[in-house]
Specification:
The structure is a homodimer of 473-residue chains. Chain A contains 15 helices and 18 strands. By secondary structure, chain A is of the alpha/beta class. The radius of gyration of chain A is 22 Å and the shape is globular.
Chain lengths: 473, 473
């Protein structure tokens, strides 16, 4: 399959140029004005072509709880999340479809799904997500979310003597599960990748991290985890290791150029140096960091230290959407309040590069994805510059990043294959998707949050908040 | 004209109820289950009805520069804005149409347009905006932006002896202009209001403020201004008055329950007490505050002090959109990072009330607008809960505020009149609007920024930044 996009704007050094772009099979074959047309011809007039973005951290099945959990910090939010009835694989399939669709329509060609596994149906959950992503045609990085410690261990003790339940699955069984997922589903050439993805230091033993490193080395897998999302986790790391979480992860060999770490809100300057030295990637999730009150990640410092930064939407229960353009906009402008010197601020062009090449680099694919370079994979998005939300005409990238585009992504290709065409998702019947999501849900469901009630008093105490609990549920 | 919306969800105390809503002429006549249908019947199934929101601060003509100005602080941004070729009234008309359309489609039924006046064509600018808003049918609060000091006076001197040009128009002539606008265009019963709207302490004399107060009292006009958007303005106020800007505005009588003040980022606790005591309203513009690096307004403190807070998009050159739902979402969740106690955080229901009743209160219309109360004006929005971005079903208000709704506002009524119906704007041909905006603009226009070059070295010096200038233009 070959095609030629004719007369399309692409960004050049500090301006734009109009070119033709030839795609042959899965890759970009030529980018220049007035090319000989090959294959199908696509009219690029009044459009902008960009490398596709990476939704570099999400949890697809949280879509079933979006809009539902009140504004509370991560530690209480997650207790509430865990109290919901477990899903079934069919629901996991639908939410993966929904996540892929929203990601595509907001410019994402790749998704990193830190996938919450249904207890007892772990491989079925992974199968459902892989099936969804293959159907939609998005490039998928499925990162089965694993832990080997019970939820209550995720809070600092504050010196209190707390007892914790055993986690339901052993470390060895958990690692065996990941290995099985790799055997069954890891097919990089087909656009489906499995990652090793311990949830983070708050719920994982060193043995689990080290087992993941071993699997990662053996099968050339990328590594993914949450890192220091909240102040409570910073306190917990000191209790647990007597050093920072970053220092500890370095010591046990988890960091590196195949490692991407979601959030990274509570790192200090020494931690940032370690991130740079190990070539680890920060996945910035600005919206969930605000929604959960986690804080503002020191993204300008990361950039100045040479740390690669990409963007994620995070799961829909903590954002609560999968609009990648929203994450890119807020994840850019938010940091202008953290440094009075505007010469350090993220420009719209920086943001595009972080979302595309930064995302690819975090998945160790910077040589194959993330720019309009001849020879790279054709993961491309086309922006309709006649869209009302991008008018009047000024700077196309400024409008796309600093504005609020609505239905502005008209075409998306992944690996040279059309997955969005004329603003329509090619491989999903969206009306049927809507009906399925509607049928399997209800408005204002009665929430049960016994775990929150259990954790709230301890949380308030250890975080130095006054004793009166919220009393919601 | 009467109509009945049948079987529609509305928020009740902590949940939702399904009701019928009767509208007679311009007001809500009844809200209850199973009402006798009167007039046209509208199917409310799978929809949510809310009071319309107020876009409580914008500058419509900035739409011509959206996406264009790089990320720099207000004081340099505004110098660049002023360097653009002045518009003509026909362009001002188009950008007011565009601003109204984007506001309606994101849930706004009222817009406060702090309208930049074309030099020499001031009344024609106001006429163009009023004509646009009457055509679209949005409730309009046109606030002609006035000043009587030259742009360069808006920077603190930092002790330097700086000379300033005279402003092009005298204080008396400026006040006469506002009076003329009131005579010609102030028609509250027809949904068009003129406000007195000095731009702010940075560019206005006491005489101008006092003249505005006098006009406001004589004609019962609301008052509007920018207030302490940046740290530079806080420094300037001390230089100019020897006290805080808020204290000074109180002394000259500008504050009160008809006064709304945009931004309010740099107020201290004493200032906040004055805002509460005078019943003045804060208009929170979170996106421009981030984009310009102005800071994070202390909105949770305002709420705790009992200060009324509403939301604005701000002008499209500093946001760069007029999506009110985006401003409401970010303006809610942003503050979770400013207070570790989540019991103080803004919930989605708070946000709805701030955007509707808070907006109305800031325009001294809290008794007529802003809630689904029998007898109030029928400024209403209907949300399509079958929209993909609001599925699966959970908490409708949580989905609307914390999600990223796309084309989710299906119907809008202002004063009982339909202005959006089945997701289409009733009184504007949007395709023609797009073509007009397209025809009168160009991509990547060459920008001239001589004023920025003049101001940048002084700005960096007085703000304590290193001497190396950005050198863009």
């Amino acid at each position: 399959m070959s095609f030629t996009i004719q007369n399309i704007l692409i960004p050049s050094d500090r301006a734009y140029e109009m070119v033709d772009v030839q795609i042959v099979d899965d890759h970009i074959a030529a980018v220049a004005p007035n090319l000989d047309p090959i294959g199908t011809l696509i009219d690029g007039r009044n459009k902008l072509l960009l490398p596709g973005f990476v939704n570099a951290h999400t949890h697809s099945s949280e879509m079933w709880q979006r809009g539902m959990i009140p504004p509370v910090p991560l530690e209480l939010w997650i207790a509430e999340l865990y109290d919901f009835t477990p899903l079934d694989p069919e629901k996991a399939y639908l939410s993966a479809i929904g996540t892929a669709v929203e990601t595509l329509l907001s410019g994402g060609t790749s998704v990193v799904d830190h996938l919450v596994l249904i207890p007892g149906q772990e491989l079925e959950t992974i199968e459902a997500a892989v099936r969804a992503y293959r159907q939609v045609g998005i490039r998928a990085f499925v990162a089965p979310l694993i832990q080997d410690q019970a939820l209550s261990t995720g809070l600092p003790s504050g010196g209190a003597n707390r007892e914790h339940d055993e986690y339901v699955r052993s470390t060895a069984a958990t690692l065996a599960l990941v290995q099985e997922a790799v055997t069954h589903y890891h097919r990089p050439d087909e656009g489906v990748n499995i990652l090793v993805a311990p949830t983070g230091i708050q719920l994982c033993s060193d043995a689990l991290f080290e087992g993941c490193v071993e699997l990662s080395d053996r099968y050339h897998l990328c590594r993914h985890a949450h890192l220091l999302e909240t102040k409570a986790q910073q306190i917990l790391a000191q209790e647990k290791y007597g050093c920072s979480a970053v220092e500890h992860l370095k010591q046990i060999g988890f960091l590196g150029d195949r490692t991407s770490l979601a959030h990274c809100v509570w790192l200090d300057d020494a931690d940032i140096e370690i991130m740079a030295a190990t070539k680890s990637t920060v996945v910035h999730n600005p919206l969930s960091n605000l929604r959960l009150g986690s804080g503002i990640a020191p993204v300008l410092k990361y950039r100045q230290a040479g740390v690669n930064v990409s963007f994620g939407c995070d799961g829909s229960a903590s954002n609560d959407s999968q609009d990648l353009l929203e994450a890119i906009k807020i994840g850019s402008i938010l940091h202008n309040t953290t440094d009075p010197d505007y010469q350090n601020w993220i420009t719209p062009r920086h943001a595009i590069e972080m979302a595309s090449l930064g995302g690819a680099t975090g998945l160790n694919l910077g040589d194959q994805l993330g720019s309009l370079t001849v020879g790279k994979k054709a993961d491309l998005i086309m922006v309709d510059l006649m869209n009302l939300s991008l008018l009047p005409r000024t700077d196309p990238i400024g409008l796309l990043i600093l504005g609020r585009p609505v239905n502005a992504i008209s075409h998306v290709w992944v690996n040279g294959r059309a997955v969005v065409s004329d603003n329509e998702v090619c491989n999903v019947n969206v009306d049927e998707l809507r009906q399925s999501l509607f049928d399997q849900s209800q408005w204002n469901p009665k929430r049960q949050a016994p775990s929150v009630a259990q954790m709230e008093l301890h949380y308030r105490s250890v975080m130095g908040l006054s004793a009166k609990p919220l009393g919601y549920s």
